Amino acid sequence: MDRRKVLALLGASPVLAAGTPAFARTAPKAASKHAPAMSSGLVNSLNPAVTPQLPRRIPLAPRLDTLNGKTIYLVDTDWGGMGQNSVIQEEMQKWFAANMPGVKTIIKVKKGNFVTDDPALWKEIADKEGDGVVLGVAG
Amino acid sequence: MSSEAGEIEQKYHIPVVAAAGSNVVSFGIGANFKYNTGMPIRYVGVPFPFSGQPRSVLKGYVEGKDTVSGKPLMQAIVDGLTKPLTDEEKMSGIPPESIPEPRLLAPATEDDLQALFKERCWTDFNPVIIPTEERVAAMLKGTSHKPDEIVKSAAGTFGTKRPFTVEKVAIVAVMAGAKPEYLPLILALSSMVPYQDSTTSIAQMLVVNGPIRKKIDMNSGLGALGPNCDANSVIGRSKTLIHKIIQGYDEGVTGFASLSNPLRYDNLCLAENEEELPATWDPLHVQLGHKASDSVITMFTGWNFINSTGWVETHYAPQNLMRDYMSSLSGMSATLLMDPSVAELLNNVQGFTTKAALAEWLSQNVEKTAESYWGNSIVSSMLGPLGEQGLEPYAGWRKLPGDSRIKPFNNARNIRSVVVGGKTASVWFATDFMPEKSVSIDAWA
Q1: What phi and psi, each to the nearest 5 degrees, are found at residue B259?
Q2: Closest B-chain CA to A25
Q3: Which portions of chain B are predicted below pLDDT 50?
Q4: What is the pLDDT of residue A24?
Q5: Is the pLDDT of residue A34 over 60?
Q6: Residues of A (40-69) whose Cβ lies below 8 Å from B
Q7: Of all helices (H) and strands (E), which one includes residue B63?
Q8: Distances (CA, A) of B92 to A57, B7, B38, B95
Q9: A58 contacts B6? CB cut-off 8 A
Q10: B399 interfaces chain A, CB cutoff of 8 Å
Q11: By CA distance, what is B158's nearest residue in A?
């Protein structure tokens, strides 16, 4: 179905068909509850759609000016279980050693499983003055 | 993973780069950020699949390109940790409001509305009943609850805020083809969102117990699992539409089920044949702590659905074939759907005078090798880490030689039985479905 037609049916401006930033949509016009059908054969339908509520935006932490002399934690989230993916962290560690030897890297495997949080590890990284984290791999 | 990255960034002010497979990375960057975390976590993507690949391939991924930016992966990681934040990444507070959906759509022809509903992913791609005001008003007569009552707020995937009303559920019920008397059940069903999703072929099963079964003519007898009953079919379909419309499940945007599952068309919606239970067997809802007089819907989640194929023979007891078939399941849970004739044979001939007794026997007799048990990625990812941390029996099972035999259903409480069917064949299904939520339908009358 043509996107302009979809938007028209939703009561929205066809301008939207040109593409807009995520939070800059034009408000669709709500059809009046008592609006008559425009001509015979037209149907007034209630709108099934639910309006999602956007969460409070939280800024990211400031970035590092350089990685030289910094400690980066390579955290295996244990996707797949049983430490299968630490191989990727090991290969990342080798890459840093070969290409950015001034970066200290430490591999850690998250406790629990891939869907559970590990706040003790995050605290440990902070307490040991970790400068950055590469977290992964989710799939 | 976005929430963990966010926790590290927000609580400890440590920059994070998150890595995800190319199969799901768009969710982390897109819908999960926009509707859930509110933090534009910096992601890099690696090719999928990565699990199951040899080191040589994974090394190639690390030395290859980031599937998000197209840059070399490691350069993208370095950039993610060092490049100054953009204005978007510094943004704090409440973003501009999402645009409220109008209550009514613009008037249109039936054909255009059908096309629109498909375009917006509001259907199962079968035609729906257009929810006119008149039809929805008639549907709302099926409940005493007010149309503007909020059923639930945290309705979206991962609990994102998608508050929805009784009227929205009535709209979905109309679209699915429901009668007003089904509405309390469909409202109860809607209160269980968000439903579990996965990149795997996860599915849900709906089991209804109590007086509502008869009141709305659900089929718990002949042909109960087939397309033979208005209530079973329409209520099952309602769950699919709730998932898409209310929860906002959109394949490729908020969900990424590689094969998905045909069970998602009707969600195995069935009613237990309580009238044909052996006298000492409790119906499911009573086992779950409800009164026999309560009307209850129980949602199960699982993946597998294996049929007995033939009927029960004298020379091989039904529990033996159940044991054999269940050895192919993961071991985390099982639910047997059995014809009343099978329940009768198990009770009268084999001596299983309760569902629990059957579960206990199966728990002690289903076996598989340790290698096969851990070969299932759901088991290895969910239970493997528990074994690594010393939790038994998983810790012991991790240490066993691969060909050692274990009893994967070590907890008999994870084996359920539901009796359903019309007594024209002594057949059954072995499934790995596990009860997830069980809610009162009466509360929504």
Answers
A1: -100, -20
A2: B99
A3: none
A4: 29
A5: no
A6: 41-67
A7: helix B55-63
A8: 5, 15, 9, 8
A9: yes
A10: no
A11: A115
Long-range contact list for B214-219, CB < 8 A, 24+ apart?
Answer: B215/B181, B215/B295, B216/B179, B216/B181, B216/B182, B216/B185, B218/B270, B218/B271, B219/B270, B219/B271
How far away is chain A from the Cα of B44, in angstroms, using its nearest Cα?
Answer: 10
Reported ipTM exceeds the 0.85 cut:
yes
Greater model confidence, A116 or B350: B350
CA–CA distance, B418 with B404 (Å, rounded to integer): 32
Tokens of B301: 């989640």
Q: What pTM does this model have? A: 0.88
Contact A35, B107 (CB under 8 A): yes
pLDDT per residue over B76-124, tens digit each? 999 999 999 999 999 998 887 677 899 999 999 999 999 999 999 999 9
Chain B environment of A44 (Cβ under 8 Å): 104-105, 107, 132-133
pLDDT tens readout for residues A62-95: 999 999 999 999 999 887 666 566 899 999 999 9
